[in-house]
Amino acid sequence: MRKLLSFTSLILLGSFEVSAQELSKLPWREIGPSSFGGRIDDIEAVPGRPSTIFVGTAGGGVYRSHNRGTTWTAVFDRDGTSTSIGDIAIAPSDPNIVWVGTGEANNRQSSTWGDGVYRSLDGGNSWVHMGLKDSQSIGRVVIHPRDPSTVFVAAVGHLWGPNAERGLYRTKDAGKTWQKVLAGNDVTGAIDVAMDPDGRTLYAAMYQRQRKPFGFVGGGPGSGLFRSLDGGDTWDRLTSGLPTGTLGRIGIAIAPSQPSTVYAIVEARGTGGVYRSDDRGTTWRRTNSINPRPMYYSNVRVDPQHPDKVWVVASSLHLSTDGGKTFTTDNTGDRVHVDHHALWLNPADGDHMLLGNDGGFYISYDGAKNWDFVDNLPIGQFYDIDVDDRDPYYVYGGTQDNGTWGVPVRTHNLTGITNADVINIAYGDGFYTVIDPTDPKYIYANSQNGRAYRVHIGSKEERGIRPVLADAKDTLRWNWSTPMHRSPHDPKTVYYGAQKLFRTRDAGQTWTAISGDLSRNLAWEKLPIMGLVRDSTTLSRNDGVGEYGTLTTISESPKTAGTILVGTDDGNVQLTTDAGRTWNNITSRFRMPAPRWVSRVLWSTHDARVAYVTFDGHADDDMAPYVFRTGDAGATWMPIAGDLPAGNSVKTVEEHPGNPAVLFAGTEFGLYITFNGGRAWQHAGGNLPRVRIDDIAVHPRTRDLVLGTHGRSIIVLDDISLFDAGAPTVASGDAALYPIRASRQRFVARMLPTPGARAFQAPNPPEGAILTYALGSGAATDTVARFTVTSPSGEVVRTFTGPGKAGLHRVAWDLRYDRAPGVTNADEGWFGIPYGSWVVPGRYTVTLDARGRKVTRTVEVLGEDRVDVVANAATSRHDAERRLAKLIGSFNDGVQLWQQMTAERRRVEDALKDQVAKRDSLAPLMKRLGLQLDSLGARFRPGFGGPKFGFLDLDGSLQASSTGPTEAQQRTIDQLGAQLRTDLAALNALLAGDFATFQRQASGVVGVLKPIDIP
After folding, report:
1. What residues contact 432, with CB distance under 8 A and at least 6 apart?
2. DSSP codes joined into one string, 141-179
3. So what's the pLDDT on residue 47?
4. Under 8 Å CB-to-CB from 727, ≥6 apart: which residues?
5. Distance between CA 395 and CA 401 in Å, rounded?
6. Average pLDDT, stretch 155-162?
7. By three-state DSSP, how is residue 392 classified?
8. Alpha-carbon span 823 to 556, nearest angstrom
9. Is 1004 buried (19+), middle (13-18) or exposed (0-12) by CB count in 10 A?
10. pLDDT for 274-308, tens place per residue?
11. How far lies 613's CA from each of 397, 565, 651, in Å?
């Protein structure tokens, strides 16, 4: 009896109320893709030991490598609350001390916020929160070169509104206490800070900025460049030679080889660009006007050995070798993604560079002439996902600045899911994807500015299908993430939202507007930000906001065709019950404190009267969770956010298709689940990071829970049917086995590729049928739970065990028989580790034996469906495999007997060393016996290449195909069987002849060893 792979989840199911601790045991799979990256905000490597690298991502947390990026570990998941990283700092005097400032400072409309600073004292293995919780965005962390207890943090503060905890902070006691040493106003914080090697001279950039859902302002009177000459106690504003008037974002860099030389990249209207000082900031001169998209970049770096070699880190990399006077743009072209944010230069070799951008992580060893893309970080930032119904199915989704992709939920390779399995669908910033279930070769996708496509997945042919109005004078407004929705009643009907709702019934050939303007249609350009009405002089005016007053989410009722809910970015919720002929603005029914971005509308699949709406107010600096439910088709709405944590806005909600009481909420900081319709919520926890969840899908066939994350690509929890309504509950001392979904036999490629350790490989789900069972507590002493699988004819095909502790557990049956007796993992050959033979497809019974009870369920075993096979192929293959398995068992019996006889002969020979007379009398017999055993040993000796290998090689060949055995394979079985019968007969004859005589003369004991039954 062999124990199968077990993945355990201890959940108490008496009333189906799952505790957070128990829920956290459920095993999530991060499946990528990793063939592209996501936004990286900072990179740091250990000086003098550059093989150790830390990468801070915009939404995926902190990754660490000890081998220059060959392998990575996500080191911030357990201890951090936010996966948005602003900056990382390694103490120059002790590389085990690492600080992380959470909340990126790149001002995107999609930026996630943080909760302060964390410190590690063990090189990133563990982290402790050290304060500044309400800073939300951190631009830089600097550690004193000789005193690691002195740390400066540039806290930019809330992106979306005013707050007090912003400015430049200093601690002298390793984070126990903080002092704000440079303060702005409630909309101005510190974006950058740099420290001279002397530890006394510091430069800090203050930044006044604010974003709203309708725009952005990237400057104000609070912005400026400051210097301290006394370790941060006092500060002076630097002005000599710097731009006058309103300033925006400023980046700072000190030349390591010549600290008196300082560079700043300054945002200013008409006079911005790169500035240089050669007297430690006392005076400045403008060297170049370069400063692309300052609110998003504004980073400058200086070569560690050459003070005149300067890098401007922006949409492209720009290099100056003459002190900033002239710049050249890198010519890497399509080989390197654009939009750079992080550049680390090796202090010992400036040609060794680590680069982070919107596309991921790159390494250069020749000063940016050539770059190596490190494609093993699954940090994609997905906005929306959809799933098809292939087997295995694919997950499709659009990503921030990396296009639209598809990734399989599993593969037919032992290696799991790799970058080679990923499909690229479309370019640009990807958003919604909609599968055509009647023709899965096609998918609808979109990108920024409402661009919409119908894409042929195989050929990548794209047909542009964005709607336009008949009157060219009428303009359409498109959200950054324009919503797209497939009708649940007609797969050819697709809805698309500008400020109006459009419908196509012919795959985008024609569109019909089925509404007027459903937004509030505000004069959004005139809405003030920080008291300022934006005009042509506004710095970084509206960067990232193209239009406002647009649809953000669409849902048609699966129960009632033509009943549609939509939401808008300016807070409207509109309802039609007649396919768009009339609309009812129901926004006031929610009693929101103010208009808030509608992040999701969702009609129930269970009840035509039930729908859900979520609001995301973070773009108005309101991070509260808002989730509402209607039970009367929208007439009234009840808040069901319940105990969702404050400060954790909700992005999406999804309903369990098998249980209306189970809901999933995707939030800024992870997934939350309710088992009672919203009265109580729990974080999913476990190995699921607290990453932003932008979309959720439950696969209708497999019941897998699929998450589209904004920082960790796609994450899957296999088979959540245990949460179905009517699932059995377990009393104390009881046992339950949950319904088992149909499971397909899959033939996997056993030839393993050898790409090296750097290749991304995501795990497949367990092979075969996932068996979920629950055991009650009480006085039970079971250490294991026992399973028996029987065929439709009642034959026992498999026995195995699982954990016997109280709670919920999972094991997997791989749809095979037990291995032949005597076969172990040590018998690995050409076809890998030998398995038991496949069962014939059909309905099997699984019996759980635990807690004194026997509980049964049935499982439908499906055959491989990717190849055409003749009738009865599975049966003929099964019969051949079982014949062979019987021969293998008999062969192993023969091996065991031969080994026992050989061991007994040697034992007697050793025992007679001192009995000369008896030894001499037995010598002729022992010699003859030894020769006969050696001769038979050629037939029964185990090991690779021996006769056993012939059996296992044929068995592996039979198992590798869904067709029946060939004539040659049948003949080989006959030949192996005939030879085995001859060999066993010879072994039995030796046992009854010379070996029996030997035993009788040596010890007088005969018959301890038994002959083998000949098959």
Report:
1. 383, 384, 386, 398, 444, 445, 446, 481, 482, 483, 484
2. EEE-SS-TT-EEEEE---SSS--SS-EEEEESSTTSS-E
3. 92
4. 13, 16, 659, 721, 738, 739
5. 18
6. 99
7. coil
8. 56
9. exposed
10. 999 999 999 999 999 999 999 999 999 999 999 99
11. 22, 9, 10
- 10 Å CB burial of residue 559 (0-12, 13-18, 19+) is middle
**pLDDT tens sequence across 880-924:** 989 999 998 999 999 999 999 999 888 888 888 888 888 888 889
In this structure, which amino acid lies at residue 62? V
Number of domains in the chain: 3
Q: Write the CA distances from 707 to 33, 425, 434, 1014, integer angstroms.
A: 13, 19, 16, 56
Q: Examine the domain organization and report whether 824 and 900 are in the same domain.
A: no
Q: Report the distance separating Cα 398 and Cα 424, nearest Å.
A: 10
Residue 755 located in a structural domain:
yes
**First-to-last C-alpha distance (Å) of the chain:** 23
Domain match, 820 and 905 both = no
Residue type, 182: L
Residue 87 belongs to a domain = no
Is 413 domain-assigned?
no
When mean pLDDT is compared over 5-19, 355-369, 470-484, 805-819, the highest value belongs to 355-369
Per-residue CA distances from 441 to 384, 424, 444, 506, 706 (Å): 19, 13, 11, 16, 21
Assess whether 685 and 744 both reside in one domain: no
> Do residues 889 and 782 both lie within one domain?
no
* Per-residue CA distances from 609 to 599, 640, 652, 698 (Å): 20, 16, 20, 21
902: left (phi over 0), alpha (psi -120 to 50) or beta: alpha
Domain end residue (candidates: 694, 723, 752) = 723
Within a domain: 645: yes
721 versus 150: the higher-pLDDT residue is 150
Distance of alpha carbon 651 from alpha carbon 599, whole angstroms? 5
pTM reported for the whole predicted model: 0.94
3-state secondary structure of 983: helix
Do 990 and 904 touch, CB atoms closer than 8 A?
no
pLDDT class of 8 with cuts at 50, 70, 90: very low
CATH code for position 844? 2.60.40.10
Distance between CA 441 and CA 328 in Å, rounded? 44
Residue pLDDT, tens place only, 741-789:
999 998 887 666 788 999 999 999 999 999 999 888 865 667 899 999 9
d(CA 961, CA 863): 11
pLDDT for the residue numbered 3: 36
Residues 881 and 848 in one domain: no
Rg value, the chain, Cα: 34
Q: Which domain holds residue 482?
A: 475-723
Q: Of the residues 690, 706, 723, which one is the last residue of a structural domain?
A: 723
